[in-house]
User: Fold this.
Amino acid sequence: MTLYCVVIEGKEYQVNLTDDTATVNGLNLDVELISLDENGLYLLKRGNAAIEMYIHQISQCNLEVLIGREKIEASIENNFRRSRIPQGQDTDGELRAPMPGVVVEILAQAGQEISEGDVLVVLESMKMKMQMRSSVAGQVKIISVEPGQVVEKGSLLVEISQSQ
Assistant:
């Protein structure tokens, strides 16, 4: 079970995911999210209805979802992260897994100079691939994972020395 806090347009939702169920604010959802390509295109199925959506990870905790011509921005935090990081504490320089998953690809090397928003690691969780992006510019200090490694939510993926 993984519990997330999702904020969309200032409204907070509690999302609970297990291997075979999803609930939002305690209500069961009968949906399936299917990855259609490596670039963020998904098919969201609910019963006989289906809609294509594009999910773009802006930063570690922020997504942009395009459905047709409508753009929705969402901020996502899991309860692990919320409970262990005091409000206002600066976490820049550490890229952590937002949920349990498998490291699919590492796109950075120790010592490499990076910019804010660069994709450093691709993580797969629940058949969905996520591009983990740097929230800061700087130099990759440590890569703590390798392809194929299973990680828990909150696991350190990459540590970055910030540019001054």
Observations:
- The first strand starts at residue 2 and ends at 8.
- The first helix runs from residue 79 to 84.
- Confidence is low (pLDDT under 50) at residues 80-90.
